[in-house]
Design goal:
Helix 2 (61-69) packs across helix 4. The longest helix is centred in the N-terminal third of the chain and has 21 residues, at 91-111. The protein has 2 domains: 2-178 and 213-238, NAD(P)-binding Rossmann-like Domain (Rossmann fold, 3-Layer(aba) Sandwich); 187-210 and 243-273 and 295-321, UDP-galactose 4-epimerase, domain 1 (Alpha-Beta Complex), CATH 3.90.25.10. The protein is of the alpha/beta class. The strands form 4 sheets. Strands 3-2-1-4-5-6-11 form a 7-stranded parallel sheet, sandwiched between helices. It is 43% helix and 16% strand. Bound molecules: nicotinamide-adenine-dinucleotide (NAD) and thymidine-5'-diphospho-beta-D-xylose. Thymidine-5'-diphospho-beta-D-xylose (TDX) binds next to helix 6 and strand 8. Thymidine-5'-diphospho-beta-D-xylose binds next to helix 6 and strand 8. Keywords: Lyase, NAD. Its EC number is 4.2.1.46.
Length: 331
């Protein structure tokens, strides 16, 4: 099987590429990645002998046409992925998330190639803190930010290409991932690397916003389950019942680092900050028999801390610029 992984030099895509090389020796992997600020060839060094890396954009029609034509399956991770960046400059989000996904869809339509689209729970908007509800595949779309609205738009393009053109596609909407190779702009790696540097963690607002954390390895086993056994045209929600508020996450990290529970700063809140995300993954569990393996958040977090301690040369080059950018918005 020939698999084209878009965004394979980013956080989740790199972990997916590693898992695929490790567990599926029969798969021939090509990665298409523009190597934006978020992509890093270093993330693919451990699997470099088993992967063909093509540097280019998913919005480059001739390139996409050629690579898709040489593939059996496309797994589409590439995106602009950070909400805070989308508030500063939405334009690359429209270009990559919408135009890029459109370009891929046209190519898989032409070549009759199986397509799996990676998306986010943020397309559903947010939930109240005291609401027992979780997102299901039937929850209406209600995205809040330029990031989540462009992801929602890309999901709708996929659905329309399935219905109108018979494209062989599936969609997954996953909750917040954590694990190795995540960019230091994101919440958990930002706080881990702050703590390694002896800097206090930065909590937006009161820190009561809830995210439904899942280890990136569990996300990726779910993606393979959907590629292997998912029903064409279907949407699968991926989550591992990992709801935690941001304050709890920071305090767990402080404990892991042996620091006092109040040794953090409250900083400016994110405009339009979604309050709570929560996933009901019963379709994935019941229909496809998927189960998460990283069910103990604290030990998953400890392993992630160890990874950042051991891979300073991977994250250090980006840290100062990320912090300088946050300083401009008082975060
Ligand atoms: P990331 O920002 O770490 O990686 C994105 C990758 O896409 C980078 O390697 C970047 O170079 C590449 N890229 C960006 N624009 C491109 C373009 N035009 N052409 C080709 N490559 C391009 O993102 P991530 O956190 O790994 O997210 C991957 C996917 O998973 C995204 O679609 C995101 O919406 C989705 N997702 C992420 C999370 C999460 O918690 N991180 C949760 C649910 C869904
Ligand atoms: O320094 C910080 N302090 C803080 O309190 C940062 C960077 C974030 N936060 C808060 C904001 C969120 O409530 O932590 C939470 C998580 O923030 P992010 O890591 O920016 O993630 P989020 O906005 O929830 O989106 C993530 O999950 C869904 C990914 O970035 C998306 O790509 C994915 O779709």
């Amino acid at each position: 099987m020939r698999v084209l992984i878009t965004g394979g030099a980013g956080f989740i895509g790199a972990n997916f590429t590693h898992q695929t090389v490790r567990e599926r020796p029969d798969v021939r992997v090509t990665v298409l990645d523009a190597l934006t600020y978020a992509g890093d060839v270093k993330s693919l060094v451990p699997v470099a002998d088993h992967v063909t890396l093509v540097r280019g954009s998913i919005a480059d029609e001739p390139l996409v046409d050629r690579l898709v034509g040489e593939s059996d399956v496309v797994v589409h991770f590439a995106a602009e992925s950070h909400n805070d960046n989308s508030l500063n400059d939405p334009s690359p989000f429209v270009q990559t998330n919408l135009v890029g996904t459109f370009t891929l869809l046209e190519a898989v339509r032409k070549h009759g190639v199986r397509f799996h689209h990676i998306s986010t729970d943020e397309v559903y908007g947010d939930l109240e803190l005291n609401d027992p509800a979780k997102f299901t595949p039937e929850t209406p779309y209600n995205p809040s930010s330029p990031y989540s609205s462009t992801k929602a738009g890309s999901d709708l393009l996929v659905r329309a290409w399935v219905r109108s053109f018979g494209v062989q596609a599936t969609i997954s909407n996953c909750s917040n991932n954590y694990g190795p190779y995540q960019h230091v702009e994101k919440f958990i790696p930002r706080q881990i690397t702050n703590l390694i540097d002896g800097v206090r963690p930065k909590l937006y607002g009161a820190g009561l916003n809830v995210r439904d954390w899942i280890h990136v390895e569990d996300h990726n086993t779910a993606v393979w389950a959907i590629i292997d056994k998912g029903r064409i045209g279907e949407t699968y929600l991926i989550g591992a019942d990992g709801e935690k508020n941001n304050l709890e996450v920071v305090q767990t990290l402080l404990e892991v680092f042996g620091r006092d529970a109040d040794d953090f700063d409250h900083v400016a809140d994110r405009p339009g900050h979604d309050m709570r995300y929560a996933i009901d993954a019963s379709r994935l569990r019941d229909e496809l028999g998927w189960e998460p393996r990283f069910t103990d958040f604290r030990s998953g977090l400890e392993a992630t801390v160890d990874w950042y301690r051991e891979h300073e040369s991977w994250w250090r080059p980006r840290k100062a610029a990320v912090e300088a950018k946050y300083a401009k918005t008082g975060q």
